[in-house]
Amino acid sequence: MAEKWDAYNASRQKLNKIIYRGEKLDKGEYHLVVHVCYFNSDKKMLIQQRSKHKSWGLLWDISVGGAVQFNETSQMAAQRESFEELGIKHNFDGVLPQISRTFERGFDDIYIIKKDINIKDIKFNDQEACDVKWVTEEEIYQLITKQQFLPIYDKTFIHFLFDLFHKQRH
């Protein structure tokens, strides 16, 4: 069954319309996605290797990401995606995204979370991810250079994420 999403206008207000994954959006319609960047006490980011079943299969990606489903909030989606993709339980109640950026057809809420996660506790959904590791900013740069990281992220954006983490009070 195809995923159902709420449609939004350019002011990020929900329209009274459901859209389905893969459906072409009408002009002036947008959808919402979330990304969660988990950082540990060593100031490393948890990254996941995308499942071979997904677009950009086997490339590395930031910790967690996905579309906000119909009748979900951004926080609900961040919590659900964290658990669905990697088995990570984190309560996002009252947590605001550190940034929200726009892309051609939507909005992307990005959460920066400090959480020391033992990689042995990760539970993969084999349709989503096949590996994880804690990495430094420089290690992500190396993956980008080798074209082993999602091409939608460049070094400037990765630096921005690490910088946001470093500026947070922990």
Description:
The protein has 170 residues and is of the alpha+beta class. It has a single domain, classed as Nucleoside Triphosphate Pyrophosphohydrolase. The protein has helices at residues 74-86, 137-145, 155-167; strands spanning 4-8, 14-20, 31-39, 45-50, 60-62, 64-67, 99-103, 106-114, 129-135. A four-stranded mixed β-sheet has the order 6-3-8-7. The protein has a three-stranded antiparallel β-sheet with strand order 5-4-9, covered by helices on one side. The radius of gyration is 16 Å and the shape is globular. The model has no long low-confidence stretch (mean pLDDT 94).
Identify the strand order in the major beta sheet: 6-3-8-7
Helices, by number, come to 3
Could you describe the largest sheet, including whether it forms a barrel?
A: 4 strands, mixed
The backbone outline, from C-alpha atoms, is globular
- Poorly predicted runs of 5 or more residues: none
Helix/strand order, N-terminal first: EEEEEEHEEEHH
Mean pLDDT level: 94
Residue share in β-strands: 25-35%
